[in-house]
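Problem: given the chain below (348 residues), write out its structure.
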Amino acid sequence: MPITLIRYVLREVLRWYAAGVALFLILQLTDALSTTVGLLLSYDATLLQAVKAFVALSPTFLNRSLVLAVPFAVLLTFGRLQGDSELKAMFAGGVPPLRLVWPLAVPFVLIGLVAFVNTGYVAPGAPARWNQAWYGIFRTTPPPPARDNYTYASPGALYYAGRVSNDRGGAVARLEGVLVERGGETITAPSGTWDTRKKTWTVQDAWVTRPGQDPRRVATPLVFPQTDTLRPPPPPAEQVSTPELQARLASGLGTPQERRQDTFELTRRYADPLTPVVFALAAGALGLLLRNRAAGFAATVVFLVSFYVLWIGMPQLARAGAMAPALAAWLPNLVFLLVTGLLVWRLR
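Solution.
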């Protein structure tokens, strides 16, 4: 196949791709702006503050746009080529249909590399930068870190707190929703304190329940030994860079659900950069079956909706343990590779 023909198809695809990236960026920025414009006006945010906030969040928007613009570009390009009978002319000239598909993967390998760097090293810090920008708009300081659903088991005792917060960053933390089980009795209290120097929990207005007895209220403070170490809550996996996420998994810390989430997020960071290439091949094979521009637009919508359903559903399945995290991360790509194989078999 003449190299000129390949360059022509790639030029058409990349032109639509640039338009698609710009379109999806604008749509996402508009959505974010529409939900925050009231706050910007209420707190008299300057233009510079607003720009800083949205620039901080832009890496997250960019990653989605880089991926979603691929089927948009390929399908609309092939729809136009079909509508103008250019593909028919190519096939009549002896060009095998699939020869137009394989070159599409080349430029999107580079896009995948950009997505890999952005996902693993730039985008994880975007939420923190976004929040920091908004604290400046609100003229407040960031809230202290808090850990929800804290649980610690020691020989003969179980300690639970719905929330552990350390407002001043010192040795004493505040407890909310406290439950302690030890020696066959259960103690519950609405609040308490954790002194990490004395290694104790102190609770107020506690209720004590023993087997075969009615719960009784204890007016005096109750003190329990607690030898665990007060640590800041781990940030969500999406907000941790790839090297830090690898180190966190290697440490073996965290609950089973947190480790599943970390494993899924780390695996997805290697799977997602391949999505532009998979999309290019799948959309290219599908585009050869289109007949006009309208079919290209309809195929784009179906393509994106199908991927979006898989993309938002897999994290929930991995977090709940219903599916292995690695399989959940790779499944969208595997599904579209299967679709590509079926389309290629039909076109051969």
